[in-house]
Amino acid sequence: STQSTWDDQIAQQFVQAYYGMFDTNRSTLGSLYSDQSLLTFEGSQHVGAAAIVAKLTSLGFTTVRHEYQIVDAQPSAFPNGIIVFVTGNLFVDNETNPLKFAQVFQLCPTPQGSYYCHNDLFRLNVG
Amino acid sequence: STQSTWDDQIAQQFVQAYYGMFDTNRSTLGSLYSDQSLLTFEGSQHVGAAAIVAKLTSLGFTTVRHEYQIVDAQPSAFPNGIIVFVTGNLFVDNETNPLKFAQVFQLCPTPQGSYYCHNDLFRLNVG
Asked: Where would you tag: which of A30, B83, B89, B105 has the fewest CB atoms within 10 A of its CB?
């Protein structure tokens, strides 16, 4: 089978870590970005870990839970980079109705042999 | 404003060309891919322009129309590469109800000064 083979394990590990940190303490997410990282959040653009965390911690909800459903991954043209494409539901505060979201990451290797998030693009899928 | 500045014009031109070719004659799309290009279409993986076009032309509808709504773009970690994130509706055959889709491209420069699609990840957003 050619299903779910491309960099799938790294993508799953990243997504689990990312949304786990997002949903428990967004202020810790800076460790997953670099000073060159780019975020496009609902069309709003932010450069670098500090600005990205400032944006994510300013979002107007108290609690959030991401329920990711599909995680596709591909090797990037960038050496050892990985493009990750996530779709799922998220729940804010006491809402029981999910919001559908889609999010794209490009993970790039660090000198330490780990990965950081170089590109991050997020959109709610409004009907 | 920091809205819609990152590589937006190239992304818009690519998306217009891509969906125009897709909706009029899918068999011509090979010119937008290379032998190294990767497609993940609803979880099914295909490598290289020929295999990608074979997949896209095998899809089980006669006519299709993509109505893209949002096109986000970011410079990639790959030199002069561009990550493009599209959401929109598509209509197949005589259906009047749209299917929502989300699609990710990584565009990379060609030696001729144009761009080809290195990464392509497509998902329908099923509720």
From this structure: B89
Tens digits of residue pLDDT in B44-93: 999 999 999 999 999 999 999 999 999 999 999 999 999 999 999 999 99
Q: How far apart are CA A65 and CA B119, in angstroms?
A: 29
B44 interfaces chain A, CB cutoff of 8 Å: yes
Is residue B2 included in any domain, yes or no?
no
Is B2 within 8 Å of A81 when comparing Cβ atoms?
A: no
The tens digit of pLDDT for each residue in A58-104 reads 999 999 999 999 999 999 999 999 999 999 999 999 899 999 999 99
Tokens of A3: 């299903």
CB contact under 8 A, B44 and A83: no
The tally of domains found in chain B comes to: 1
ipTM > 0.90 for the complex: yes
As a whole number of angstroms, the distance between CA A86 and CA A8 comes to 12
Q: How far A47 CA lies from chain B's nearest CA (Å)?
A: 10
CATH of the domain at A63: 3.10.450.50
A112 in contact with B at a CB cutoff of 8 Å? Answer: no
- Contacts of residue B62, Cβ cutoff 8 Å, sequence gap at least 6: B93
The reply to whether residue A77 touches residue B76, judged by beta carbons under 8 angstroms, is: yes
